[in-house]
């Protein structure tokens, strides 16, 4: 299957090239040219399937020209190697926990799938590939963990010194040789600027094969379709409302594509923090990007979400307003709900899942059936906020072990020439 640019449908690339390039040359976003329907009756016996079997059925049509069945099976086994449990919060409200992977956030799924695809595509190439990633915390951990398993690709992660949590820093700095962490004496924008400059440096690009693990890479959003099937594996085919805590809208877009394949979701809900351009669009029809506002659900602090372009490519305004309902909430609402759910239901939501849960509760006032919120991160990733909600040690054993590991990073001032020398050494 080919992937076209959402800006220009005639610009088409096979899966392999779309993954390697990340972005089409016109700065659009790659989209699959076909969304293959699942066979009739697929959901009749879905309770007998495993998540890995579903992953194979769902992903095969999107990748089969560039990955054979064995390659795809192997990638799926390694990507979907942990559980996706459904926990009852209250009544007919459930949380689908997507955070049991190596960096305790749902981004592990996309990052791992991308890393393993690139591993296959670079296997037969002579040149070394270096992935450059700037992170404000969350994405870097998923990328570091994912690429630590891929030995023929090197990763350089730039993070702002002193501006990531201790757990996040350990997740970036405790891997082997092929994952290198640069502790930049600046902020996230400085890190991002250094990476951007590297991609614009023709001299560097002649001497070094660099690539990105960008969140808008098709190999990051395609595998995210798969866990939307998990509630149906658990409950069978019944009316479900699914709420997605959203920032850049990659997660929700994956759900929308799954629905186009035949996933029988009744209603999708977008839950946003104060960065609420999409809920406002869904209510008013006006899309007005805004400056990013900082909130306690900071992985969703996005003022102009890239995947909005993908949503608009998939649906007309009228359609999207029916399929997705959007709600936005303040930090105060979020914190209050976290406390309430902790006390009443003995369930600790992270701030992102809490925004999704608020949106779910709002919609379920008028919806029937079961409601599910995607719980996108383990609360231990946001201890500063959790401290205000619960006084208990919630660090998983594996995270405790990580905190004992030695930090390995290279401190660097914000200086492009120094960065370039480092890459070329
Ligand atoms: C990235 C992230 C989100 C937002 O996902 P999008 O695909 O960008 O909408 C939500 N929650 C957590 C914990 C995240 O890390």
UniProtKB/TrEMBL annotation:
Pfam families hit by this protein: PALP (PF00291), Thr_synth_N (PF14821)
Organism ancestry: Bacteria, Pseudomonadati, Bacteroidota, Cytophagia, Cytophagales
One of the GO biological process terms: threonine biosynthetic process
EC number of this enzyme: 4.2.3.1
Domain Threonine synthase N-terminal: from-to ranges: 2-80
Domain Tryptophan synthase beta chain-like PALP residues, every copy: 96-373
Name of this chain's protein: Threonine synthase
Organism: Marivirga tractuosa (strain ATCC 23168 / DSM 4126 / NBRC 15989 / NCIMB 1408 / VKM B-1430 / H-43)
Entry keywords, A to Z: Lyase, Pyridoxal phosphate
List of residues that carry N6-(pyridoxal phosphate)lysine: 107
């Amino acid at each position: 299957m080919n992937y076209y640019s959402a800006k220009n449908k005639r610009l088409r690339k096979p899966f392999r090239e779309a993954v390697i390039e990340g972005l089409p040359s016109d700065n659009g976003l790659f989209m699959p040219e076909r969304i293959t329907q699942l066979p009739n009756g697929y959901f009749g016996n879905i309770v007998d399937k495993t998540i890995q079997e579903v992953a194979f059925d769902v992903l095969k049509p999107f990748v089969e020209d560039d990955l054979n069945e064995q390659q795809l099976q192997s990638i799926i086994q390694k990507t979907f190697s942990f559980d996706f449990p459904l926990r009852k919060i209250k009544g007919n409200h459930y949380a689908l926990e997507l955070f049991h992977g190596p960096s305790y956030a749902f981004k592990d799924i996309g990052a791992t799938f991308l890393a393993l695809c690139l591993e296959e595509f670079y296997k037969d190439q002579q040149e070394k590939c270096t992935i450059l990633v700037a992170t404000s915390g969350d994405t870097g951990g998923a990328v570091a963990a994912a690429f630590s398993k891929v030995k023929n690709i090197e990763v350089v992660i730039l993070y702002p010194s002193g501006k990531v949590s201790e757990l996040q820093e350990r997740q970036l700095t405790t891997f082997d040789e092929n994952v290198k962490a640069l502790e930049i004496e600046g902020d996230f924008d400085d890190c991002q600027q250094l990476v951007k400059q590297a991609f614009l440096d023709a001299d560097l690009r002649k001497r070094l094969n660099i690539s990105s693990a960008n969140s808008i890479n098709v190999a990051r959003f395609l595998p995210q379709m798969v866990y939307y099937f998990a509630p149906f594996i658990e409950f069978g085919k019944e009316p479900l409302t699914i709420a997605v805590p959203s920032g850049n809208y990659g997660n929700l877009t994956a759900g929308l594509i799954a629905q186009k394949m035949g996933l029988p979701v009744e209603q999708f809900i977008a839950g946003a923090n104060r960065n609420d351009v999409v809920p406002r669009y869904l209510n008013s029809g006006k899309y007005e990007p805004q400056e990013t506002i900082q909130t306690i659900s900071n992985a969703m602090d996005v003022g102009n979400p890239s995947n909005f372009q993908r949503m608009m490519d998939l649906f007309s305004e009228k359609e999207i307003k029916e399929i997705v309902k959007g709600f936005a909430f303040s930090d105060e609402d979020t914190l209050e709900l976290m406390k309430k759910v902790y006390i009443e239901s003995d369930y600790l939501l992270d701030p992102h899942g809490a925004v999704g849960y608020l949106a779910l509760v709002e919609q379920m006032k008028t919806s029937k059936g079961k409601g599910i919120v995607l719980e996108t991160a383990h609360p231990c990733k946001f201890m500063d906020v959790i401290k205000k909600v619960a006084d208990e040690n919630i660090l998983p054993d594996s995270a405790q072990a990580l905190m004992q590991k030695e930090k390995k990073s290279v401190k660097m001032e914000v200086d492009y020439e120094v960065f370039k020398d480092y890459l070329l050494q």
